[in-house]
Amino acid sequence: MSQNLISLLKNCPTQYTKKFYDILFSENPELLSVFNKTNQENGMQSEALAEFIRLWANTIENYSEKFMNRMKEVAEKHVSLQIKAEDYPKVGKALIKAIGSVYNLTEEETNLLLESYKKLSGLFIEIESNRYNQIQESGGWEDYKEFIIAEKTLANIQGDTISLTLKTVNGEKVLPHKPEQYITMQVNGVQRHFTITDSGEDYYKLLIKVKEVTDNNSFSVTQYLRDAEMNTIVGLRPPCGIPFKLDNVIPLVLISGGSGESNSIAVMQAIKESIKNGQSDKLPSSIHIIHSTQGENSDTHQLDLPVEQLRDLGLKVSYDKYYTQDSYSKNNTIHIGRINEKSLNSILDNHNNNYEICASLSFSANLQQILKGWGVAEDNIHIEGFGPSQEVFDSYLIGQDNPGSSVCSFAHE
Question: Which structural domain, as residue segments, surrounds residue 364?
Answer without folding.
Answer: 252-405
